[in-house]
Design a protein that fits this description.
By secondary structure, the chain is an all-alpha fold. The protein is built from 23 helices and no strands.
Length: 478
């Protein structure tokens, strides 16, 4: 009975706009000592996140701890004023938002990891490396692929895949690798900005129901300009020499292309369930994940019987079930292994960010920030500033804060903030998940300062993309 009541309460909370938790129903603790402590705690935790590469502390750890402490302080603040319900209701709303995002990303990451295990991406990489293209040609080809692939595979996965191609081709040519990686990061972020599946920020906007699925494609031209301008500038630094020949051969395993087809079907189901049935997109994604698990079972039955005496699988599940056993045998497929390879640190980081920002909003800080940005500065200035904040802080907490403020804006302004949050992070290597991931991939070659050297060119693309958006989408600002 209590569990059923709890589910009903969470369902009702999910229908409330996020602004309820930023202002109106919440009290103002922005000048209270608890509020100031929470701000200081968040800043300290995020400083540890920014220094992840230097201190080798995974970004999820400080944010998860900070989230827990912030919400304890939020509950104490409201409790001392005799309010025993607001903090619990607010955190339930934030947990519901995280749950939808978490399951959506988990299904997408599992598909991507399964395609990787089946050799789909290795085949693409081997084809590019073995074609004997010139360095400049590969620069443009990898950029185009990153721009086209990121709307489907997400900017992080795309950047990691294409950066391995750049490193394989560039070899000891560190200048080429650095410039190629910059191009990949910018292209992946730009491509991800015009698709709900391309970036966490666009996914959050779509799942919130602010923009319909087809509206995101209005950002195609601005996103393309955002990448083309810095790419054209960077390409002049490259020669037309050919890299050393490669004989890399990739084997595509059984069922790979069917899994690609299932992934496309899953995306269609996610879009359809949201557009036509008004259900959360995660329903389509999780159903598609079920299809993938059924197909993996079919592939297992086609192959040799799995050895049920193998060691525990990556998730520590019961190996009495052959489908859950570890699959080290050639040609076998294990969806639970692909699921275990998801970016768990990133997923837990999202948990920490969403709860930290939600806690600060419940204390009144987002209402204060919204009044300054969208009241005093105006929507256009505020939305352009979001891009610069994304470069300095990371676009995920910035966009979640904007969604929590829920400013009253027309479709053109919502598209503008979606664009700037998506591509603004490209101006610094630490401004996006793609940039941070590639820095780890090409450690010591693609660095913060190597990227900073070309930030002026990326800024030109950023400014031009905003101008193009105002030009081609002028009718959406009314």
């Amino acid at each position: 009975m209590n569990k059923s009541l709890g589910l009903v309460v969470m369902a009702v909370l999910a229908t409330l706009p996020a602004s309820v938790w930023a202002s109106g129903a919440t009290q103002d603790f922005t000048g209270h000592w608890i509020g100031l402590v929470c701000i200081a705690l968040f800043v300290f935790a995020y400083a540890l996140v920014i220094g992840e590469e230097a201190i080798h502390l995974r970004k999820s750890k400080p944010m998860m701890v900070a989230a827990g402490i912030i919400w304890v302080l939020v509950a104490i603040a409201y409790g001392t004023h005799g309010d025993k319900t607001t903090a619990g209701a607010a955190i339930s709303h934030n947990l519901l938002e995280f749950g939808e995002l978490f399951l959506f990303l988990l299904a997408a990451m599992t598909y991507i990891n399964t395609m990787d295990e089946r050799g789909v991406f290795a085949a693409l990489r081997a084809w590019l490396v073995s074609r004997n293209f010139s360095l400049r040609t590969i620069f443009w080809i990898t950029g185009v692929i990153a721009f086209v692939l990121s709307p489907v595979a997400d900017n992080l996965t795309t950047a990691l895949l294409m950066s391995t191609v750049i490193m394989a081709v560039g070899g000891d040519n560190h200048k080429y690798v650095a410039v190629g990686c910059i191009n990949i990061v910018v292209a992946a972020n730009a491509g991800g900005a015009f698709s709900p599946f391309g970036d966490i920020t666009t996914l959050m906007v779509w799942q919130k129901g602010i923009l319909p699925f087809q509206a995101f494609f209005q950002l195609f031209a601005p996103s393309l300009v955002n990448w083309l301008i810095p790419a054209a500038i960077l390409s002049f630094t490259l020669s037309k020499e050919q890299p050393p020949a490669s004989t890399e051969i990739a084997v595509v395993k059984d069922g790979a292309w069917v899994i690609v087809g299932l992934f496309i079907l899953t995306i269609i189901m996610a879009v359809s369930s949201h557009q036509f049935l008004h259900l959360p997109p995660v329903m389509g994604m999780m159903t598609g994940l079920g299809f993938l698990k059924f197909y993996a079972y079919y592939l297992q039955q086609k192959g040799e019987t799995l050895d049920t005496d193998l060691a525990e699988d990556a998730l520590g599940l019961n190996n009495d079930d052959p489908e859950l056993a570890a699959t080290d045998q050639p040609g076998q497929i294990d969806i639970f292994h692909s699921l275990a390879r998801a970016e768990w640190d990133t997923l837990m980081f999202f948990y920490g960010i969403i709860l930290c920002v939600g806690g600060l909003g419940t204390l009144g800080y987002l209402g204060l920030l919204s009044e300054f940005m969208y009241g005093d500065l105006g929507a256009t200035t505020a939305n352009i500033a979001v891009g610069f904040l994304s470069a300095l802080i990371d676009n995920i907490p910035v966009m979640f804060a904007v969604l929590s403020m829920m400013p009253d804006m027309n479709e053109g302004q919502w598209l503008l903030v979606t664009l700037t949050a998506g591509v603004g992070g490209s101006m610094l290597s630490i401004g996006s998940a793609a940039g941070v991931a590639v820095m780890g991939q090409a450690r010591g070659i693609y660095t913060f300062f190597a990227h900073l050297k070309w930030s002026w060119a990326i800024f030109l693309g950023y400014a031009a993309s905003i101008w193009v958006h105002f030009l081609v989408n002028a009718g959406r600002f009314s």
